[in-house]
Write a structure and sequence with these properties.
By secondary structure, the protein is α+β, with helices and mostly antiparallel strands. The chain contains 2 helices and 4 strands, in the order E-H-E-H-E-E. It has a 4-stranded mixed sheet with strand order 1-2-4-3. It is elongated and about 50 Å long. The chain starts with a strand and ends with a strand.
């Protein structure tokens, strides 16, 4: 599963395009965000990606969870979103 790392300066439209493309091709994607600004950008990207998927009759579900990321210098807590494509509900 692909992992997208989202920062506080990431562009939500660009992330949304990547999410939509990966959901179309692989059916799932993972996003990681550290800090409130990054989580904000990730959530905006999820909302935008839903719009990108409507023409493909797809929707998405996202499961957030906290994960610990270890680097050589420190341990950080991130929010991980596991995102899966589902068929869009009938209109």
């Amino acid at each position: 599963m692909e992992t997208l790392r989202v920062s506080g300066t990431s562009r939500p439209n660009a992330i949304a395009g990547a999410i939509a493309a990966l959901l179309r091709s692989q059916g799932q994607v993972e996003m990681q965000a550290i800090g409130p600004a990054a989580v904000n950008q990730a959530v905006k990207a999820l909302a935008i990606a839903r719009g990108y998927l409507t023409g493909d009759l797809l929707d998405l579900v996202a499961q957030p969870e906290f994960v610990k990321l270890e680097t050589p210098q420190e341990e950080r807590t991130a929010v991980k979103f596991t995102v899966r494509a589902i068929p869009a509900p009938p209109a």
